[in-house]
Amino acid sequence: MFKNPSFATGFAVIALVALGAALAGHATGYEFDAINMSEVLKSPSRANWLGTDQYGRDLFTRVLFGARIALRVGFIAVAIESLIGVTLGLISGYLGGYVERAILFVTDLTWAMPPVILAMAIVTVLGPSVNNVAVSIAVVSWAQFTRVVRAKTLSLKELPYIEAAESIGESGLSILVRYILPNVAPSIIVLATLSLPSAIMSTTALGFLGLGAQPPTPDWGVMLSEGISYIEDASWLSVFPGVAIVVLVVGFNFLGEGLRELIDPRIKL
Amino acid sequence: MNGFFAFVLRRALYGALVVLSVTAILFSILQMMPGDAIELLGGNRISKNRIEMMRVAWGLDKPPAIQYLYWLRNLATGNMGVSIMTSQDVAKMILGRLPYTLLLTFLALAVQYLAAIPLGLIAGVYRDSLFDRICVQSAVILRAIPSFWLGILLILLFSVKLRLFPVSGYSGLQSLVLPVLSIALPLIADTMRLTRSEVVETMAEKHVTTARAKGLRERLILLRHILRNSMVPVSVMFFLTLPWLIGGSVVVETVFSWPGMGRLLWRSVAQQDYPVIQGIIFVIAVLTVVCSTVGDIVLSLLDPRIKGAVKS
Amino acid sequence: MNAVSWDSHSEELLRVKNLSVRYRGTPKDIHAVGGISFSISKSEVFSLVGESGCGKSTTAHAIARLLDEKKTTLGGQVFFDGCDLLALPWSEMTSYRGSRIGMIFQNPLDSLNPLWTAGYQIGEAIRCDGIDSSAALSMTEGLLGEVMIPDPARRTSSYPHELSGGMRQRVMIAMMISRRPSLLIADEPTTALDVTIQSQILDLIRELRRTHQTSILLITHDFGIVADMADRVGVMYAGKLMEVGDVEAIFESPLHPYTQKLMKALPNMPKGERRLEVIQGSVPDMSAPIEGCAFRERCEEAFGRCEKWEGRMIEMGARHLVSCALFSGDGEP
To answer: Are residues C293 and C230 in the same domain?
Structure first.
């Protein structure tokens, strides 16, 4: 697996970010919300590697804590969207008929709005918070799981051993869980990894718009939106949280590409 | 041709159904918003009685479905209601903002495709060359950059440090440069990747060998066979991603204080001014569904095999 | 067996000399063709026959230089009308392809561009000669009539997916004969088609050869087709030519043990399916140049000399050549 250069690069980057997120706070000697009004807007130095923000908080610490939030939202969102998407994909592919048509109609509905706007609407109703952002991203982007899983189920359904299981009276649920799901699982893993980066990017966008995590939560999007007021004097506030986003997203893109090459090269997002 | 006409009609009707369903669902969800604009407006200064009267006046006491039908009936006469915050006519507010958003979106689209298609074509034809590797690697980085952060970086570089472009707002053509680049650059990466992989795939197809075997010059093979065939999936993506662009512009408009529909939506969401939110959501849903419907029709014109499938 | 008798005094059109093709790959190269020589005369049908993977199709593509030259290394010479095609700059090949050398392929669906009409794709070939589009259109209709497609005027505006397999191959043939090439390379032209359509297409090719005196290089793995169509045959195995001779000589008195094996298997097969049968053992590893005779591992008559066999062709009668140590005349086993 590690011979695949994309997978190896992605894995290394993600491992590094995860380590930073785990050690955040211990490693830097600061807390993400430790206000220090005597150290306001200091440029990067020995003491504060990435400088400090408008409340004198250490930016490096906040960026590391931000990784926790990004990873958490990413994983929750992808877990929910794959749960919804895979279930509907299995059902629509296996049952066909009106159920399938109804499910396909619902997937068309999710594609009728740009994801960010749909997520904005949902998060408005749920109220701005980190978990609600995850839910709203999931509600917006489960349909691609349905599309892939449905197509796979349709072709698996025709296989002789599954038809045989049907003929000896095995129930539909049991066939789906015991025969079809294990065969679809590798593609789901690839798809989930490839969906993580877009979930993370949507999170930061919502955070930036003020609809996600709320200050003082060290969300990268929130940090960038706060930093923009100090762009003239403290440009580091506008640079480093963005670098962190790019590093994490590039890492997951590589990881996903690698898994795609290793597991299911035909899968498209 | 008759079959084609029926196909277009069917797609249009289905599109209308999708728009009505999705807006109905979203409007119902918006009704569940915790607290509404009247409370926000009035605060504690107004009596409960007065609030109730205002609710009735705004039609907020009716069930969501009825409110939606009222809204649709008014829409038929071009009336989208009035803003709770500013008491302005919503349709007029949106129409005032829409041109700015469309201007931004279409310029970004033009930049995106005019840059991405030649780059992808050259990278694909000269696969594994230095140029190709630079394109592929920079695409990996470029597509990981959130457009709003790219906007911030561009402001930092060109407005704050170099003082070449205005920071925000709309003050003539030069204020378009930075927002357009922020939207287009990350998208160039995706389109270039797609074009490149399609070109590589098409070049390996046997009909290209046929074209060569019949004595066609390489330039003609490239244009009429490789590029022409690669453009089918690229055109599909064009129409599919157009709505994403409109969505992405919400965030970028906020960064640059661009006087477009996206910024209006953002402000209305913050103020829970839901007649405006509803109006914008409706306009965006219509734009999105029209794009995907036109995309389907264009695809059937570009690829005769699809038209054939529709006929039968 | 063959319809047209072979004129021994006719001029040579194509001479392939010691042609070799190596596909450069990772981790290993593939030596697909290992130095073969043969020639084709004007209006002659020469057939290259062999199992799949023996390099016959690669040879056909190499002659027209249709292989991706970034990934292949060509060796030897290919003289067409006295000019060495392999020595020409790549850009000059366009004046040979289509106009003097036509080529038809195995799968007519993949080989036509799905997005252009049949008429457009044929016209594109004609317009290479600077003919204007209205003249090209009427020529296209004439060609579709010549390849016996009913209602040619309507069919010019059909897309490949709207045509049957046989019709697609007729379109392909019309496209490739449109500029009246003197050599037509047919790479398994009927393999992807139904048996009944096969014979119609073969009839058509035979008819074209009769009316235009076109030379044909016919690549096939079907001895039935060889017997029907060819004047002379070259038998290929693992990138090497084993035996070359008139079709009668090859069928009635095959010399090479490999050819003999193939021939022995023939009468047992039902007519129309006289394809090559499987021989014991497997094809040698082609990731390195083959030392000695390529067939010796599977040959019942192999002896010590075969390990050092250099692959030269020994003349065993009029136009009958064989590459086998048994006939080297040294008498030294």
So the answer is: yes
Do C40 and C160 fall within a single domain?
no
Asked if B148 lies within 8 A of A208 by C-beta distance, the reply is yes
DSSP conformation letters of A147-205? HHHHHHHHHHHTSHHHHHHHHTT--HHHHIIIIIHHHHHHHHHHHHHHHHHHHHHHHHH
- Chain B neighbors of C125, CB-CB under 8 A: 214-216
- What pLDDT digit, counting tens, does each position of A153-181 carry? 998 888 888 888 888 888 888 889 888 99
User: Considering the domain boundaries, does residue C307 fall inside one?
Assistant: yes
Using CA coordinates, name the residue in chain B closest to A210. Answer: B270
Using CB atoms, pick whichever of B206, B220, B304 lies closest to residue C159: B304
Chain C residues with CB under 8 Å of B303 CB are 114-115
Say how many C-beta atoms besides its own lie within 10 A of residue A59's C-beta: 28
Query: What number does CATH give the domain B97-311?
Result: 1.10.3720.10
Instruction: Return mean pLDDT, chain A.
Output: 88
Mean pLDDT of chain C: 88
Run of H or E including B20 = helix B2-31
pLDDT on residue B46: 65
Q: 3-class SS at C15?
A: strand
Asked if residue C3 belongs to a domain, the reply is: no
Find the CB nearest B149 among A105, A122, A224.
A224
Shared-domain flag, residues C167 and C210? no
Of the candidates C115, C124, C172, the beta carbon closest to that of B216 is on C124
Q: How many domains does chain C have?
A: 2
CB contact under 8 A, C175 and B210: yes
CA distance A25 to chain B (A): 25
Domain boundary among C164, C180, C196: C180
Q: Structural domain boundaries of chain B?
A: 2-76, 97-311
In a domain? residue C173: yes
> Between chains, do C66 and B209 touch, taking CB under 8 Å as contact?
yes
Q: What is the pLDDT of residue B92?
A: 93
Query: CA gyration radius for chain C?
Result: 20
DSSP secondary structure letters along chain A: -TTSHHHHHHHHHHHHHHHHHHHTTTTTS--TT---GGGTTPPS-SSSTT-B-TT--BHHHHHHHHHHHHHHHHHHHHHHHHHHHHHHHHHHHHH-HHHHHHHHHHHHHHTTS-HHHHHHHHHHHH-S-HHHHHHHHHHHH-HHHHHHHHHHHHHHHTSHHHHHHHHTT--HHHHIIIIIHHHHHHHHHHHHHHHHHHHHHHHHHHHHTTSSS-TTS--HHHHHHHHGGGTTT-THHHHHHHHHHHHHHHHHHHHHHHHHHHH-TT---
- Choosing from C159, C180, C201, the residue where a domain stops is C180
Structural domain containing residue A66: 5-268
Query: pTM for the full model?
Result: 0.86
**Sequence-ordered list of residues with C-beta below 8 angstroms from that of B285, at least 6 positions apart, any chain:** A112, A113, B19, B22, B23
Residue A203 half-sphere exposure, CB side, CA atoms within 13 Å? 36
In this complex, the residue of C116, C125, C161 whose CB is nearest that of residue B215 is C125
CB of A96 within 8 Å of a chain B CB? The answer is: no
The Cβ-side half-sphere exposure at A56, using a 13 Å CA radius, reads 7
Residues C63 and C201 in one domain: yes
Closest residue of chain C to B129, computed from CA coordinates:
C70
Do chain A and C touch: 3 or more Cβ pairs under 8 angstroms? no
Contact A234, A227 (CB under 8 A): yes
Q: Is the Cβ pair B216, C107 closer than 8 Å?
A: no
Q: Are residues C194 and C65 in the same domain?
A: yes
Per-residue model confidence as pLDDT tens digits over C13-47: 999 999 999 999 877 899 999 999 999 999 999 99
Beta carbons of A147 and A104 less than 8 angstroms apart: no
Q: Do C97 and B212 touch (CB under 8 A)?
A: yes
